[in-house]
Amino acid sequence: MLKIAFSPVYAHSLPQTHRFPMLKYELLPEQLIYEGTATKENFFEPIPISEKKIVRVHTSEYWNKLKTLSLTKKEIRKTGFPLSQKLVDREIIIAGGTIQNSEFALQYGASMNIAGGTHHAFTEHGEGFCLLNDIALASYHLIDEHNINKILIIDLDVHQGNGTAEIFQNEKRVFTFSMHGEKNYPHKKENSDLDIELKDGTDDKTYLKVLKETLPKLIQEQKPQFIFFQAGVDVLATDKLGRLGMTLQGCRERDKFVFQESKKNNIPICVSMGGGYSPKISDLVEAHANTYRLVRDIYF
């Protein structure tokens, strides 16, 4: 059964000044239900992550600053959002959703979160609209609770997964793969286990060629027991924060290939939404909806 994490807090906890690009959190579930890709029974409201799990990844000092809303002005500016209790609660629920999704993926083969992919959250600070790193938190959940000893993180957001790379820099049980824009944010990149940097304007043909040459070899070499997929759609040429040149069809082919490789190798996969900032909201919803349609068609 397809299980999709969704909570109204995903959108409603965001400041009004940031609401437009985040309308996707409200519109996507409606679109999936309207077209029949999902039913209401496919959705579940996540349980907030525990403090114990948060400090498994993030430092106690950083977590205490978050829960007491005592980040400095400089630290707040780096996150990109005004700090509030609602915002912290949102991140806790998003991370809880990805952890529950990881459990459902073990059970059903694939599971999805209409949020998450907060890959710019580091061990001791947040940045780039990310406060807690949901994929890192869920990875350690699987390591601790299910004795998973090899996880592959496939991060195909247009921005490097710098926080994820930092968190797992000395963790051999997690392999971080980030394929991103060379000249895009963050300007100072961290070292993932594998980084592939793409030139501005990279088109579908070039992007897919690189991915198809890389991912099968990576799976064969690493032999992961579980995959986390950061499926950002800010790779689109229409994305105002992107700089790449992909079409909706190219982005769909990207996701299809990832899912086919995961399915073929019998590896459970957990999908976090990631970024997407196309000014035309219908383009944005369509790009994200394609990811869910593919999981339904390939796995269910």
TrEMBL record:
The keyword DNA repair does not apply. Pfam families: Hist_deacetyl. GO terms for biological process: epigenetic regulation of gene expression. The keyword Transmembrane does not apply. CDD domains: HDAC_classIV (cd09993). One of its GO terms (molecular function) is histone deacetylase activity. Keywords: Hydrolase. Residues 24-289 form the Histone deacetylase domain. InterPro entries: HDAC_classIV, HDACs, His_deacetylse_dom, His_deacetylse_dom_sf, Ureohydrolase_dom_sf. Belongs to the histone deacetylase family. PANTHER family: HISTONE DEACETYLASE 12, HISTONE DEACETYLASE HDAC1-RELATED. This is Deacetylase, histone deacetylase/acetoin utilization protein. It comes from Bernardetia litoralis (strain ATCC 23117 / DSM 6794 / NBRC 15988 / NCIMB 1366 / Fx l1 / Sio-4).
